Amino acid sequence: MLKMTDVKKVFRTDLVETHALRDFNLHVKEGDFVAVTGPSGSGKTTFLNIAGLLETFDGGRFELDGQDVSDLNDKQRSQLRNQKIGFIFQSFNLIPDLNLFDNVDVPLRYRGFNAAERKKRIEHSLDMVGLAQRMKHLPSQLSGGQQQRVAIARALAGEPRFLLADEPTGNLDTQMANSVMDLLKEINANGTTIIMVTHDAALAKQAKRNIYVLDGKVSEVGKSATANHAHLAAVQ
Amino acid sequence: MFSYYLKLAFKSIKRNPILSLLMVTAIALGIGASMTTITVNYLMSADPIPQKSHQLFYVQVDSWDPHNAFSDDSDDNNPPPTQLTWTDATNLMSAKKANKQTAMAKSGGIIEPKGLDSKPFEASIRLTFADFFSMFDVPFLYGSGWDQQSDDKRDLVVVLSKNINDKVFGGENSIGKDFVMAGKNFRVVGVMNNWQPVPKFYDIQNGAFDEPEEVYMPFYLKEELELPNWGNTNCWKSPEGEGFKAFLRSECINFQMWVELPDLKAKADYLAFLDNYVAEQKSLGRFPRPLNNRLSDVMTWLDEQKVVEQDARLMLWLSFMFLLVCLLNTIGLLLAKFTGKAAEIGLRRAVGATKAELFKQHIIEAGCIGLLGGIAGLGLAVLGLQGIKSLYGDYVNNLSSLDGTMVVVALLLAVVSSVLAGVYPTWRACNIAPASQLKSQ
């Protein structure tokens, strides 16, 4: 489903070369829910950006849904993102002057669906996150947890194969974080593969599988997050 | 997607009202200034009679001073005089060598309206020939021009402008009625409809942007009624003798002449006739200068005589420079605006927008700002033209109105220039690395 083999990513400036990922190896299977943890600067976000085709990589091999993405041009990467990947961000990234309906509509516009199909999908995905009644509201009229639910609805509307979540509960209190996490688990239970970067060990524990990234490498892979707790505690 | 991008553009314009207002104002100022000068130049240089301007030729023969060439507004260092003497005008008219021809002069006189309450008033006269009306496609409200017999018999007939007919006859059909001018009783044969060629090409020697004359009468009545010279009169030597007749016999120029020639052969034939005429006059002791006759069609004539003033052209270029400065400002403002949208652009890229789609979205936004700037700029152009009117008075009345073409030009200029101004900021916006923006909102 998602297979990275010896993926490398180097950020270069005039003075410094930073190896963000070195020989990064990971295989995520369909229906998986992977939590990625690791200290700041370990390469978690770089991994997620490469996995989401938002950044290119400098070496190795990356297959997404059986397709080698190394040689895709910018347009092909955009289309692949649009069709197969849904994003959830820490700060929700909703467009402030578009109402919920129009926010969820954003990825569908680039998909080429007709108006009726878009409407059906938007209503369905807002219904899934429990906000169907508030379609005409602006993001600023919602709580943080509700805003993240809208972002999840936006990610789901295109029925992606993957959900990539970058600290999806980082800006939420515990209650809202749990509710968002429950929603992600429900989505995963319905068949969508999820990769979630988080600092929160308790959340990571709820994923089916944990990986720990350190110095640009996957240092541990486990079914349970318990083993990583010690690591996280040590780092933090 | 176009309507979606339009919707996004107007939302984005509303999102930063002050920044948007600054951009619209910058474009409006540039468009307002440009459109004011473009309109003046456009009206100055328009073809006043496009359907036949290439068949109408202004006649010039060089009857001037043997020691000094005539001096006019053209760049030519040996131009023939810009008008004719009475002798040449009447001789060329008698020869009738062109399909249609008319010599003419400007004059004026006192009109004495009938009715106890009406006071006499002065009005301008165009002395001309019967062909004038058909050559220049003059529109008629009532009646028509006079015929060639009236020219030769010096009949007391007049064609009135609509204004004068309104003033003297209350706008009613005055054909056949008596009309008293210069102390003589005329018969009205025609009333013109509104007619205002801009420039007033048939007599640019006496104000290229003046109103047409108010009364038209046969040319030879100049001699018959001793009507005064209005407009420019130039002489390279004094008349021999005193009085009106001596002036008419002199080498003073006060008369214009146009001929209608259907094709190049007719033009060549007429030029040959002019050369023969001058040769004949030389044998009579006139035309001391070398042969230098000209036939210029309408647009050539207007161009040679620089009807579009140099300073008007300079103002045009200055206003374009001003528009450029306004657009540079707009580029800066658009850069600021699109930089402020980096997070949204990053998000759109992340969810699948290609660079091409984002380019379309933002260039349409730039175009919408341009359209709003164009509409506001039209308002400023109307104010600018009013300003020109109040500065220069009636002289520029005919040059200071926006027509449909100018409105379209203004809006197109505004949209095209703001789209051009938007290219660089849009290109920058499309190249925002999405990953860099998604963490930082």
TrEMBL record, chain A:
Q: Does the keyword ATP-binding apply?
A: yes
Q: Which UniProt keywords apply?
A: ATP-binding, Nucleotide-binding, Transport
- Start and end of every ABC transporter domain? 2-235
Q: Does the keyword Transport apply?
A: yes
Q: Which GO terms label this protein's molecular function in UniProt?
A: ATP binding; ATP hydrolysis activity; transmembrane transporter activity
Q: What is the lineage of its organism?
A: Bacteria, Pseudomonadati, Pseudomonadota, Gammaproteobacteria, Alteromonadales
Its domain of life?
Answer: Bacteria
Q: What protein family does this chain belong to?
A: Belongs to the ABC transporter superfamily. Macrolide exporter (TC 3.A.1.122) family.
**Which protein are we looking at?**
ABC transporter ATP-binding protein
What organism is listed for this UniProt entry?
A: Paraglaciecola hydrolytica
Specify the signal sequence span. none
Q: Name one Pfam family in it.
A: ABC_tran
* InterPro entries the record matches: AAA+_ATPase (IPR003593), ABC_transporter-like_ATP-bd (IPR003439), ABC_transporter-like_CS (IPR017871), ABC_transpr_LolD-like (IPR015854), MacB-like_ATP-bd (IPR017911), P-loop_NTPase (IPR027417)
Q: What's a single GO CC term here?
A: transmembrane transporter complex
From TrEMBL, chain B:
Q: Do you know which Pfam families this protein is assigned to?
A: FtsX (PF02687), MacB_PCD (PF12704)
> Which superkingdom is the protein from?
Bacteria
Say if the entry is tagged with keyword Membrane. Answer: yes
What kind of membrane protein is this, topologically? Multi-pass membrane protein
ABC3 transporter permease C-terminal domain mapped to chain residues: 318-434
Boundaries of every MacB-like periplasmic core domain copy: 20-219
What are the record keywords, sorted?
Cell membrane, Membrane, Transmembrane, Transmembrane helix
Q: Where is the protein localized?
A: Cell membrane
Q: Which InterPro entries match?
A: ABC3_permease_C (IPR003838), MacB_PCD (IPR025857), Macrolide_Exporter_MacB (IPR050250)
Show the stretches that span the lipid bilayer.
Answer: 21-44, 314-336, 363-385, 405-424
GO terms of molecular function: transmembrane transporter activity
Any one of the GO CC terms: plasma membrane
PANTHER family membership? ABC-TYPE MACROLIDE FAMILY EXPORT SYSTEM PERMEASE COMPONENT 2, MEMBRANE COMPONENT OF TRANSPORTER-RELATED
UniProt name for this protein: ABC transporter substrate-binding protein
Which species is listed as the source? Answer: Paraglaciecola hydrolytica
